[in-house]
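Comment on the following before class.
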Amino acid sequence: MSILSIVKSLLNLKIKLDVKKLPSQGLFYKDDFEISIKRADMEDIIEYEHNYVKDSLGLVITKLKKVVEKNTIFSDGYSFLDVKSVDVIYIFFEIVKFTKGKSVQFNISDIIGVENMIEFDSNNFNYFNMEKLMKYYNNKEKCFTIDGYKYTLPSIGLENYLTSFLIENSDNVKYDKYHYDFIYFLGDKSYISFDEIENLIQIFNFDMEQNELNKIGKIIKLFIPLQKYSLKRNGKVIDINSKIDLERIWK
């Protein structure tokens, strides 16, 4: 085999991710859902870094999603749209790590202000302890059934369609007053039409009794920690939100 062939084969390598090590802990994916990643190419990195606006969270997330979408491979019947939105940044870091061939690390300061590094990986990730909630877990439907409601994390597909809907209606201030909690109760859907969104807005904002809305609010509150990113070291939780330099992540 020529050196060129060897290099080419190495560049085409992919690795399978353990969905149980994602922030969602694999609890909301069907048993046959599999995801693998490949190395991002220079074109991906250049596009990511081009016109990077640090203060525009929406633009940063869009760039990040593009990298993940292009460099992920799924088992039959699934696509990027089926990924739970909470897992996307974690997958992005895995792609960065695989591409660079080295770990993703953050500077942290201890009590006396001395800086040291901590690696972003499954060993250091602060996973939400689901033990007390597992009594509600429905393994067949991959959701948590509480007070008659089936809670699940929204997919990228649902998030994208809801975002498109809100952009489409951005000139109508009434949509700023609604809440969109229904996105947590749509099962494994990765697509939703604008008409469906309108119907769900009506149901969850006007048709439901207040006591039912209170139930929904309490259920969502139970799972808020599941959607937060932090690391842990020696039993101490480390907030990394202000320590992630996404602009220079490829350096």
In short: Residues 131-225 form one domain. The chain is about 35% helix and 15% strand. The two ends are 32 Å apart (CA to CA). The chain has two domains: 3-127+228-248, 131-225.
